[in-house]
Design brief:
The chain is mainly α. The protein has a single domain (about 1-50, about 90-295), classed as MetI-like (MetI-like fold, Orthogonal Bundle), CATH 1.10.3720. About 75% of the residues lie in helices and about 0% in strands. The chain contains 13 helices and no strands.
């Protein structure tokens, strides 16, 4: 009889989790702001995947005879160059589209690295506790105390500026956000009846963590991941703007901002449109994160 009660205690949270997931999907679809954020992220992914077919021109093709052409709606523009060209005659729209590919690669790679490290350490720290918890959290405190930009400058100065270095630096600095949230939730979950029931019937700790604890923290991890997407996009653009990102020839929103800032008086479009792309993307990702938080939080959506 005790075994049956323990099995029922273990199965009940799984059914509740499925119901919450269905309700979260309904809440998300009903939110216009969340749908807007999802559409922006979807547009980013489409540009990243199909950039060679969407971009009207080669983003690296230079033609000094077409340098500093204004957007299509201004006098002096040229057909086919919808957002104008930069000082070297490169198409602004094409470079923005290919810049979306770079931003998407960096952002999603950073989220994967940070979430894998942070969630794993958070699960271990919260479930095991003791000196293991103390060591992990002290490392997290040290990481938080160290300025991200200074760490990036130091690493890039030693290793060199390239795409893999940028992904590694941003990814390594993003795990702390996950570990602190996941740890706090796991500490609460390990005292719940279904976890204690699983322990009582002899389930291995690794099975308890992945079968019963991890599904109950995925909503928080998902919300953190969306905000980390926005942070990674801004961080990559900032490093490229400072000359610490990808090489100048590579289409990047940060590189385009850096190149266009000196032409704001004579060719405003060179810096304005890349800045607008960054603003729209980060706004969409943050709104998506807010929508996911509202949809996944049972307290906000009873």
């Amino acid at each position: 009889m005790a075994m049956l009660d323990a099995a029922a205690a273990i199965a009940a949270p799984d059914e509740a989790f499925s119901q919450r997931r269905y309700q979260a999907l309904r809440n998300f679809v009903r939110s216009r702001a969340a749908l807007f954020g999802g559409a922006v992220v979807a547009l980013l992914l489409v540009c990243a995947i199909f950039a060679p077919w969407i971009a009207p021109h080669d983003p690296r093709l230079q033609n000094l005879n077409l340098g500093s052409l204004p957007p299509i709606w201004q006098h002096g523009s040229r057909a086919g160059y919808w957002l104008g060209t930069d000082e070297l005659g490169r198409d602004i729209l094409s470079r923005i589209v290919f810049g979306a590919r770079l931003s998407a690669i960096v952002a999603f790679s950073v989220v994967i690295i940070g979430s894998v490290i942070g969630v794993s350490l958070g699960l271990i720290s919260g479930y095991v506790g003791g000196w293991v918890d103390d060591v992990i959290m002290r490392i997290a405190d040290i990481q938080l105390a160290f300025p991200y930009v200074l760490l990036a400058i130091a690493v890039i100065g030693v290793v060199g500026a390239n795409l893999y270095t940028i992904i590694g630096v941003i990814g390594v600095t993003s795990w702390v956000q996950y570990v602190r949230v996941v740890r706090s939730e796991v500490i609460s979950l390990r005292e719940r009846e279904f976890v204690q029931a699983a322990q009582a019937i002899g389930c291995a700790p690794i099975r308890i963590i992945f079968r019963h604890v991890l599904p109950n923290v995925t909503s928080s991890v998902t919300v953190i991941a969306t905000f980390e997407l926005a942070r990674a996009i801004i961080f990559e653009a900032a490093l490229s703007f400072l000359g610490l990102g990808v090489p100048p020839a590579v289409p990047s929103w940060g590189n385009m901002l850096a190149e266009g800032r000196q032409y704001l008086d004579t060719a405003w479009w060179m810096g304005t449109f890349p800045g607008f792309a960054i603003m729209l993307t980060v706004l969409g990702v943050n709104v998506l994160g807010d929508g996911l938080r509202d949809a996944l939080d049972p307290g906000l959506n009873p």
